[in-house]
Design a protein that fits this description.
59% of the residues lie in helices and 0% in strands. It contains five helices and no strands.
C-alpha cells in the first residue's frame, strides 16, 4: 500500500496561515520576530502539511466581528462631544464649547450629506432647460 503524494499548498493556503500568524502577533501571542520567521516559513511552504505546525501552538482566533459600523462611530462621537463640552471642574456646559461642538457637528453633517449625495447621484448634475 503506497501513501498518496503530499498535497501542494496554494497561495491562498499560505495567505490564510499568514493571516492567522499576523493576528497572533497583533494579539501578543507571538513576538514580531517569531511572527516574521513563521510567516516566512508559511510563504516558503510547498505542501499543505507544512502549514499546520506553524499555528499549532496558537489558541483559536476570536470570533470575527463585523465592521463596527456607524452606530459605534456615532456613540464615540457623542461621547467625545459630551466630554469636550463639559467643564472639568464644574461639570457645567460652557456656552463657547457648546457652540464649537454644534459647529463641528454641523460641518460633519454637511460633509457626510455631500458625500452621500455624490454617491447616490453618482456625480451626475441635472441641468434644466429654461
Amino acid at each position: 500500500m503506497t501513501t498518496p503524494p503530499a498535497m501542494r499548498a496554494s497561495d491562498d493556503d499560505r495567505a490564510g496561515t499568514v493571516r492567522v500568524l499576523q493576528d497572533a502577533v497583533t494579539r501578543g501571542l507571538l513576538t514580531p520576530d517569531e511572527g516574521s520567521e513563521r510567516m516566512a516559513a508559511a510563504w516558503a511552504a510547498v505542501h499543505l502539511s507544512d502549514l499546520p505546525p506553524l499555528t499549532a501552538d496558537l489558541p483559536p482566533a476570536r470570533p470575527a466581528r463585523g465592521a463596527p459600523g456607524w452606530g459605534v462611530l456615532a456613540t464615540m462621537a457623542v461621547e467625545q462631544v459630551r466630554t469636550s463640552v463639559h467643564e472639568i471642574r464644574t461639570g457645567r456646559l460652557s456656552p463657547t464649547r457648546v457652540a464649537v461642538a454644534l459647529g463641528v457637528v454641523l460641518l460633519l453633517m454637511i460633509v457626510v450629506g455631500s458625500l452621500v449625495g455624490a454617491l447616490l447621484f453618482d456625480g451626475h448634475h441635472h441641468h434644466f432647460d429654461r
